Amino acid sequence: MSEDADPDLDRVDRAIVNAFQGGFPVVERPFEPAAEALRDRGIDIDAHGLLARIRAMDEAGTLTRFGALVDAEAIGGAATLVAMHAPEDEFDAVAEQVNAHREVAHNYEREHPHLNMWFVVSVADADRVREVLDEIEAETGQETYNLPKQQEFRVEAKFLVDGPVPEGDVDLSHPGPDVSPTDRDHLTPPERDLVLAVQDGLPLTETPYADVADEIDQPVDWVVATLKRFDEEGKVRRVGVVPNHYALGYTENGMTVWNVPDGRVDEVGPAIASLGFVTHCYERPRHEGVWPYNFFAMTHGRSEEESAERVRQVRDRMATFWDVGEDDWDTLFSTRILKKTGIRLDERADANTAATTAGGPPEAGDD
């Protein structure tokens, strides 16, 4: 995609999009070191200008938000991918029935001769997954196929554009307080409040972390230290700008699926995950007689040609590990977004929050 393909993004905007899809500073005034990092890359901008540009891109829909990407699985509860068949003449009615379940976070129509509806179920209690699927089957008369993640090899949805900082390799996650990860498997009440305050993005102000601290009535030093610790613990995947990939021209969303020999999955996973354009990469279960594939790799492209080339590269990499036949893989492109509300974290965080005694938040490194 040439820079002329998107006249609303100039050279500086493109540098910002590329630079800060992860690794944004978690310090009280983060835009100052972020702007300095861009100046080191030849982009003439100060903290005020950087904030103004991120705010403008957010308002224009180029970004879906700015802030911390929370790993819902690490916060508590469970989520799973589900496939089902919706008859063509009943498709919209079935979609409405599925989407009516508040536990359904995302739902896509995908190109497949049988399994044409794909959705995510997110719940506070893993036992609730089966209950939701039973309800959907009873309402629609269609069988559901649960495809929970068995291994995760990559989740890093970065969408780079042509322009400065083409590798998107600015990482400013290290400045800030020294923190020690904990081995706790629960949240404290203040941590729950913090997760819920940042899940939809940080305020676009000069002091976003201080604003969050005011919102949840906690010291800003605690907010900064806790978010930095969450990043190290994996509760936060990264902090930065979150692009609207459709606005950047990434309109081709291809889910490639593979019937990888079981003994090869542990080798194949890291190899496919190392391809920079693969945004998600998982092992999932097969369903005998219906779904023969056990390996999923998501790719995005800015044209049919680019998407096809990326799928070809995945297949070429696969072929270095095993003899890939024509029946051993498929690509399911999304044709329609049926629902996209995001993973509901409130109930999952509440269910994973342990009561603590009064007297303020624990220190960021406390167990």
Explained architecture:
The chain is α+β, with helices and mostly antiparallel strands. The chain has a domain at about 10-70 and about 150-335: Arc Repressor Mutant, subunit A (Orthogonal Bundle), CATH 1.10.10.2890. About 35% of the residues lie in helices and about 20% in strands. The protein contains 12 helices and 11 strands. A hairpin with a 6-residue loop joins strand 3 and strand 4. Helix 7 crosses helix 8. The chain is globular. Residues about 1-5 and about 355-365 have low confidence and may be disordered.
> Spans of 5+ residues with little confidence (pLDDT < 50)?
1-5, 356-367
- The rough form would be described as globular
Q: Would you tell me the structural class of the helices and strands?
A: alpha+beta
- Overall pLDDT confidence: 89
β-strand amount: 15-25%
**What series of H and E elements makes up the topology?**
HHHEHEHEEHEEHHHEEHEEHEH
Question: Per CATH, which architecture of the domain at 10-69 and 149-336?
Answer: Orthogonal Bundle
- Helicity, in percent? 25-40%
Outline of the structure:
The chain has helices spanning 11-19, 31-40, 47-60, 72-75, 91-99, 128-140, 189-198, 208-216, 220-233, 265-273, 304-318, 346-351; strands at 63-70, 78-84, 104-110, 117-123, 144-147, 151-155, 236-243, 252-258, 278-283, 295-301, 329-340.
